[in-house]
Amino acid sequence: MVVSLRLPSLSSLFLPSVSRRSPAVLRRHHHHILRTPVFAASFSAQTTVSETDDRVDTQKSNRVQDQAVTPRSKDFNAWYLDVIEQAELADYGPVRGTMVIRPYGYAIWEAIQDYLNVKFKETGHSNMYFPQFIPYSFIEKEASHVEGFSPELAVVTIGGGKELEEKLVVRPTSETIVNHMFTQWIHSYRDLPLMVNQWANVTRWEMRTKPFVRTLEFLWQEGHTAHATPEEAEKEAIQMIDVYTKFAYEQTAMPVIAGRKSKVETFAGAVKTYTIEAMMGDRKALQAGTSHNLGQNFSRAFGTQFTDESGLRQHVWQTSWAVSTRFVGGIIMTHGDDTGLMLPPKIAPIQVVIIPIWKKDDDRAVVLNAASSVKEALHAAGIKVKLDDSDQRTPGWKFNFWEMKGVPLRIEIGPRDVSSQSVVVSRRDVPGKQGKVFGISMEPSVLEAYIKDKLDEIQSSLLEKAKSFRDSNIVDVSSYDELKVAISQGKWARGPWSAGDKEELRVKEETGATIRCFPFEQPRGIKSCLMTGNPAEEVAIFAKSY
Amino acid sequence: MVVSLRLPSLSSLFLPSVSRRSPAVLRRHHHHILRTPVFAASFSAQTTVSETDDRVDTQKSNRVQDQAVTPRSKDFNAWYLDVIEQAELADYGPVRGTMVIRPYGYAIWEAIQDYLNVKFKETGHSNMYFPQFIPYSFIEKEASHVEGFSPELAVVTIGGGKELEEKLVVRPTSETIVNHMFTQWIHSYRDLPLMVNQWANVTRWEMRTKPFVRTLEFLWQEGHTAHATPEEAEKEAIQMIDVYTKFAYEQTAMPVIAGRKSKVETFAGAVKTYTIEAMMGDRKALQAGTSHNLGQNFSRAFGTQFTDESGLRQHVWQTSWAVSTRFVGGIIMTHGDDTGLMLPPKIAPIQVVIIPIWKKDDDRAVVLNAASSVKEALHAAGIKVKLDDSDQRTPGWKFNFWEMKGVPLRIEIGPRDVSSQSVVVSRRDVPGKQGKVFGISMEPSVLEAYIKDKLDEIQSSLLEKAKSFRDSNIVDVSSYDELKVAISQGKWARGPWSAGDKEELRVKEETGATIRCFPFEQPRGIKSCLMTGNPAEEVAIFAKSY
User: Fold this and answer.
1) Fewer beta carbons within 10 Å, N or C terminal of chain A?
2) Does B5 lie at the interface with A, CB-CB under 8 angstroms?
3) pLDDT value, residue A15
4) Signal peptide position in this chain (chains A, B) (predicted)?
C-alpha cells in the first residue's frame, strides 16, 4: 500500500516568520533549552542548486541541512524536539502535556498498527472496545493497582451540566473495566481462553512530559486475556512479549533486550511483568513494550470465576500487554542523526522519494514523465513511493526536506538520466557520495529488484548499527563500584543480582539507574550478587531510563 | 482477509442460568420493556437433529430459532436489543449509557473503517490525532457551537489529584481544537487545502441512550478540512457526503437518501449540513452520516487566516464530516429479521460458515477433512470463511447460531456430500428450502465462482429489498393534513416546503416528525409549500427519527 501523504503545512515551516515561532511552540514546556534559530537563518535564503551534473551538489546542501537541527551530540533532548518539529511528526496540544500527532507521525503509528494487528489476530485475539469512563470504585478494588495509578488519574466530575454521584476515571489502563465485563461473560471452562485486544487512547496525569515518550494522553493497544490455568497465562504473557520483540527487531530495527522486570518495577497489579528495553541514541533505556502475567489478582478483586471441567469454581488466570505511541519516540531516538529522522524501510510511510531535476523549461515535461513512470512501476511492485513534483521548491530544498523526514531511499532523475534511461539512487543511512549510486537502469524489473534489495540492505544495516552501538555500551560488572562507574559513563551495567528491594532502591538513589530487566538471555556459570556477594541466579541490567 | 473470531463467551449465553440473566443485563436501562425469557426456555433443551438426509431438519430448527428473539413486528426495540445481545454485538458498560463493543460488533466497525479509510486517503486526506481534552474556553468561542454542545459535555475537573485551574471538556467533536491547531499551521495559500481525518472516541452526555444508535461514548471518524475558497469547501462537503452515500449503498446495502438539512437541523456551527438518512425496519429515520460546510464560522472564532496569492489575509473556509458506530445500528435495523442479524456480504466479518455434519464417529474425519479443504479453497479465493468444527454443539444449534449472527451463506457438508464431492449451500436471506441448493460441486474453481456469485446476488438482493421497502413507505404529500396522515401511519412524508423555522417546529410538536432533509434528488415542476401554499423551490422529507 502506498501512503500518499498531504503535507500542506510544511512549506510554511520554512518561512522565516514561522521558523522563528515554531521552536517556541515546541519548547514551551521546556524552558531550560535555549537555542538560536539557526534553522530559520539558513533556510530563509533558498539553497542554491548547482546542476553541473544535472543534479544538486549534495555536499553543499548537506552542509545547510547540518544546521537544521541541534546536533545530537550537543543536546540530545533539543535534537529530539527539533526532529519532531521539523519532520512534522507532532505538535503540542493546548492542554499541558498533550500532543497532536501530525500526519507523518501518525503514519508511522499506522505502520505499527498494521503489523501488530495482524499478529494479534494470528495469535487468536479479537479486537473489541471497552468504554473509557471507569467508575472510581473500580480502581480501588485491586490494592496495588490503586496505589500505582491513583496519583495519575484524570477525573470527570460533571456530566450533562450536573455534578455526578460517582466520579468517573478516564481510563489509565483497562484491567478493572475488563474484569468487570469478563465476570459477566465467563462462566465455564468452555468460555476460556478469552483473548481480546483494543486500540484506544489512555490518560495518565504525568508531570514531566515529552512528545511520544510520555504524554498526558497517548494511543496504545492493550491486550487482555483470561485462562483456565496459570501455565496458560504464563505462556500467553511470554508469547506476547515475543511478538513485541520480533516486531522491534524485524520491523523497527531496534535490538531491544527482552526480560523480566524486578519486583519493584512490576506493573501495579501484576504478578510478573515482561518488558522489552531499547537503548536510545543517548544510551538511556526506553521501556518499549510490556506484557504482564496478572495471576489471579484482578479475578479475585472482581470475582471473575469459571466452573472447571470437574465442576469446581475457580478464579481465572490473566494477562495484559501493551505497546503505545511511545514506540514512535523509540524509533526516532534509535536511528535519527544530525540530518534528522532515519526510518527503517519496513516502518517508513514513504520508502522511496523521487526528486525530478530540471533547469530548462524544455526538460520539465520529459523529466516529469520519466519520474511518473518510475513511480508507477515501483508503486505496482508494492513499494511505498512518493514523487515530489512540486514547482515551489528547488531540488536542494527537497533533498534536505526528505532527509529530515528519514525516507530511506531517494531517486534523482534529471535530463541526462532520461537520455541514458537510468536514475541515481541515494541512501539516507550512508551520507554523501558514498551512499549514492549512478546509472541504475530505469527498466522496471531491474529498478524494482535493485530498490527492494537496497531497502532490505538498509533495514539490516540499521539493525546491525543499533546492535553494535548497544553492545558497545553494555558493561559487565561484578561489583557495585563497577556498576557506578558504568552508569556514570552513561552506559548500561549488567551484573549478577540477588539483593532485595531496598538495595535496588539504593542503587536508584545513588546512581539514577534502575533495573531495566533480568534478560531472558542469561550467561552460564556460577554468579554472585554484585551488591551482596551472595549467590545469584541471574544477571540484571541497570540503566538510566526515560 | 479472513477474520477468525474467537467467540468464547457464546456457549455460555445459551446455558439456562445465563439466559435468564442476560436480558436483565441488557435491559437494565429499559425498565419499560417486559418480556418472558422464551429464549432461555427454548434453548435449554438442545435442538434435536434429524439427519434423514445427512443434515438438519431446517424447518424444525427454524421454528426453535423463531422464538429466540422478540418478533420484530411485535416490539421493534425489544427485537433490536435481543439481536444485539444474542448475536453478541455489544453489551452495556458499567457507566450509564456506555457500551462495550464485543468482537463481532467491532468486526463490523472494522469493515466500515477498512473501506472508508481507503476512500479518505484516495480523496487526499491524511489521518492524524488530536488530543481529546479541550480547554473549556475553546468551546465557548463559537456561539452556536457552545449552545449546541454545552448541555452534553463531560468535564474533567481533577487531574493528578488536584483541582484543575481550567476545566477540560472531553471532546464531543473536535472543530475547536482542530482550529486552534490549524491557526498555527496555516499561513499562506500554499498550506491549503489542509485535509485531515481522525478515528477517535467522542463523548456526549446523552440522556436517552440505545446501543450503537446513541451512547454516551462512541467511536467515529471526523474529517476536518480548510480551503482557500468557499467553492472548494462546498465541493469538499459534497464530495464527502457522496463518499458516504456510495458506501451506504454499495457496502451496507442501505438505500439512504442524501440531502441538505434544514436550518433548524443544521450542525451547531455549520453553514450547511448534508446528511444521509436511512429508513430503519420500523420506518423511523436514522441520520447515518453528515458532512458540514462550516464556512468561516470557526476560522473567524479562532483567527485561522492565510495570506492569499495577492498578499491579502483571509479566513479559511472549512468542512467537517463524520460517521460513527451508529452505522452498525443502522445495518442491524435495516436488514435484520426475526431470525436475527442479516449482514450484507461486503460488510460481513464472516461471509460463509461451513458446518460439518456427521452422525457416526467413522464419518467424522472424512467430513472434517473435506470441510477443511473447502475452507482453504474459499479462503485462498479471498472469501471470509469460518469452519465451525466444534464438537460441543449440534449442527442444528450451529445453524441457528450463525443465522442469528447474520452470516450470508452457510455450507453444509455431510458424509453423502463427501461421497458425491458436493456441498449444500443455504442463503441467510431466503429462509427454508427455497434458499437451499443441493449438489454444488466441491471442485474449488466451481465452488468459488458459485459462492462469489451468490454473495453478489445477496448483496444486490438486500439493497433491492430495502429500496422497495423504503419507496413503499414514502408518501408524496401536498398539504399539512396529508403529511399528518402519512406520519401517523408511521411513514415518511415528502412534500414541497418553503415555510419558516416556526412552522417546522410546529410540525415537530404536533406530529413528532422533523425535516430529515431536502433531498438532492428533486422532482421537477412548480411546487407550492404544503404548509403555506407559497411557492416552494424544493420538497423536504419529514419523518420520525432516532
Assistant:
1) N
2) yes
3) 33
4) none
